[in-house]
Specification:
This protein folds into 3 domains: 105 residues, Methyltransferase, Cobalt-precorrin-4 Transmethylase, Domain 2 (2-Layer Sandwich); 252 residues, Heat Shock Protein 90 (2-Layer Sandwich); 73 residues, Winged helix-like DNA-binding domain superfamily/Winged helix DNA-binding domain (Arc Repressor Mutant, subunit A), CATH 1.10.10.10. About 3% of the residues have low confidence. Helices cover 34% and strands 23% of the residues. By secondary structure, it is of the alpha+beta class. The strands form 6 sheets. The chain has a 6-stranded mixed sheet, covered by helices on one side. A hairpin with a 5-residue loop joins strand 13 and strand 14. It is built from 15 helices and 20 strands.
Length: 453
Amino acid sequence: METQLVEHKKSFGKEVIISLVALANTDGGSVIVGVDDDGNPCGLEVGPETVQRCLNEIKVATYPQLVPKARVAQKDGRQIVIFEIPEFPVKPVAYKGRYYKRVHNSNHLLSLDEIVDLQQQALSLSFDAYPSQVSLADLDTELIQRFFNRVNSRGRVALADDPQTNLVKLKFIRDGKITFAAELLFGVPDCAIRIGRFKSEATIIDDNVVRGPLLSAVEEALTFIKKHVNLSYHFDGSLERRERWQYPMEALRELLLNAVVHRDYKSPSDIVIKVFDDRIVFTNPGKLYGKLRIEDLQRNDYVSSIRNRLLAEAFFLMGDIERYGTGFVRIREALSSYTEIGFKIEEIGDFFKAELFQIGSTTSPITPHDTPHVTPHVTPHVEKLLLCCEKPAGREQLQEELGIRDRKYFYKTFLKPALKTGLLALTIPEKPRSKLQKYQLTEAGRRWLAARG
């Protein structure tokens, strides 16, 4: 079976080299030559010079040059060649000037922005750390001081009395030049947050374009959102009046900060926020960064990949971000008392989209990446598997508990459907075929079992 880490090819050709390049630019892996898509041997003639000739072709066609490990093996009495390549430390690797990455079990041509991202990751430097064209005089000194005051009040870092010393310490000045992060936070960056109140996709009631330093833009955008979402009041046992927003304000703030901190500022597109009667949608340029995937964000133990490290650090020091990689956990926690609200996230082209919506609304279709507030379809087979996964368990253990000997039948009938529901997840998602792999209930899975009783 082909996976993120394994590719099958019937014979050696350019597609083998492209697959090796894609694997080298992602997590590494293997290309098995001499088998069909299902892994069945199809008869490959391997002469004494075959492997060396293939290695030479790979080396000549790639830059930086790839030299994978290669070995001849037997499968069902027929010869196959296995090429193994680790994740390459200097990215991106090209095949004749074109760059590829591995996405699930296929190779994807990289966009220009993705190529730049890989280069920056290889240099351990984020985009916002690069020098800007503005000078210190172009920055808002009052806003800078307010930022320092907020940082000091949180106590997460000790700042000096001299503003320029602090800017250097926080890497807003690097090698004597203002970085993009400083321009974005304290200057007048060439980017905006576009917010609209919509009655329908074609009918807009109110709109605003927020431009200016990100520090003030976040609060201005949140004020506009509050203006257009419903606020109700209720009384508790002590007769105190309590507010209840249409959506938890903590979740809205997290989604706004996520869009601002993690958007791709190389893109000319703006952040767009649409407020409807029954849903609110956040869309920002830039897909998930690095190796982070949509499935990872469904888990509470995901490891964040940060596109704009200095921006993330700034909001962390002010206390707006509590800890890296907890934003979506906090959103789900905020939604725990809003059982009528669903939450879904997806990548659309080069954009990331997050949506809060009223469950049962006909205008907000459900996707596989909905949160546990939407009940997925669970077959009896999947239900049996979930009941075995209250603690992380490996494949062999699960097959034994279910009394299933056939591995393929277990995968197709039990495991694959369970993973698709989002109720079950891998403990080592970055290495799906790891011998140490186990399967565990997601937060959605735990809630589903609890509701089932």
